[in-house]
Protein: Methylmalonyl-CoA mutase, N-terminal domain/subunit
Amino acid sequence: MTDHDFYGFSPPLKQDWIDQALKDTGAKHFNELLVWDDFEQIEYAPFYTEEDSHSFPRKISDSRQIPENPQRHQWENVSSINLDTDPAETVTRVLGLGIDGIVVQWSGSGNLDDLLPDLQPEYLTIWLMPMGEVDETVSAFLEWARKKLPDPQKLRGGVIWDAWAESGHSGGSKQQVAAQVVWLHSVTKDFPEFKGLCLDFSYYQKKGFNVSEELILGLGVFIEVVDVLTEKGFYLKEVEGNLFVFLGIGKDYFLQIAKLKALRILFEQLTSLYSGGAGEGGRFSVQIFSTTGMVKREEADVYKNMVRNTMEAMMAILGGTHTLWVQEHTEDKSSVFPKRIAANISNLLQYESHFDRRGDATEGTFYLEYLMDTLLAKVKKGLLEQEAVGGWYGMLPRIAEARKSSQL
Structure:
């Protein structure tokens, strides 16, 4: 424990910092130093102190408020292959990059025994990203998995495809989407470590929504999924065990860390509401799959892109991600070299920087606590508004129109 009296001086008060800031800047009032982010709709102060943390109503400075916040944090390092375009040699070399899992982009065309002759699924997690007809692709993949792995518990990974996000730009009806979700859950629920229900939060980030809107809409899909499946007779615990979040990492360092931490808290609180506060066997910790590369890459300066990937990987890890997909620093998706560099970023952060041994390195960061508290308040308000307009289907066009108007 730190002895604040060790140096013989009293710790400075926030007013001392304010007085110094006003003196250094020539401002007449502290409010002149506040900055308003019009896109994120968040107000920032130039600094935060321990006194600020006492005023946060949610008191999240205690790491025990965040589900699954251990002293050691392990994450899964994944790379990717495209079975429709990558030659067999590329697939084999990517599988040898020292990774824990693989994103398999596939349209469902061809025989997986021929396309993946060297893959031993019991040793890697497999994240299927359907590029064609989802039903056919998923069915063909699971049929292959059953032949390769007689024990369904040995198939690990999930399906990176969100029926609700897909309907956002395809115009599918709620009934069609609900039927798709029921089918996906039904065919994957017997594989306890392979998750068929993807909540694609990155979809809203790519569409230009800010962080709080991304969380509101993503959690809105979670509510829709739970409602649809529990009405069909599936148990909440079963649904929880079959879903994961696919999350994109942006460019604002502390805000992205706060996004992941707030998301973990919000998921636990929502599931607690569904179970009447009973918890149904303990705290719920949603599995988070994070990917870099949401910020537009500059092909002419690939070295900056490597730095961007490293920083975004750090944001995901410090936020508590379970799976990390560092994407290539170039637009050349067919070459093995950028995939190797991307995979090495995650490996270096683990084996040389020892991020897996640090626990929560951001705990006690007053600025981060402010961001988390702000996001929690904005998202909870947004979820109530979402329910008032009929859920996700009512909220998506409303936010999209507001975002469009603000950009005019």
